[in-house]
Write a structure and sequence with these properties.
Layout (H helix, E strand, L loop, with lengths): L1 H27 L1 E3 L1 H7 L4 E4 L3 H6 L1 E2 L3 E2 L5 H4 L9 E4 L4 H12 L5 E4 L10 E2 L3
Parallel strand pairs: 1-6, 2-4, 2-5, 5-6
Antiparallel strand pairs: 3-7
Amino acid sequence: MQILITIGVILLVLIAYIGINAMRLKKAVTNLTQEQFIEGYRKAQLIDVREQKEFDAGHILGARNIPSTTLRQRHKEIRPDLPVYLYCQNTGRSARAALFLKKRGYNQIYQLEGGFRTWTGKVKTKK
């Protein structure tokens, strides 16, 4: 019986944690469809938060690579007064990057819904 209560408490805490993170994320970043993303990214700072190797294999034309692993050191390269368009492979890293930037005063943060894996627009690769 004690084990069931413990498991129930753990599940409750886990569900609460996931819910709180979802609400924080919803306040930090706006998800955009590919069409919405294309409409605005040329007038914004387009940041690919994937690692350099992934970026070199193919990225959205005009994107700048600031890997999520270096964002803590490099976030000042991103202007807080301009919109920030983020993307990664799926949206996990860009969502965490958005939360990080939001805590530092960035307010216009957008991410590509579905990430780069769903992108069908122009791509640039390094040879």
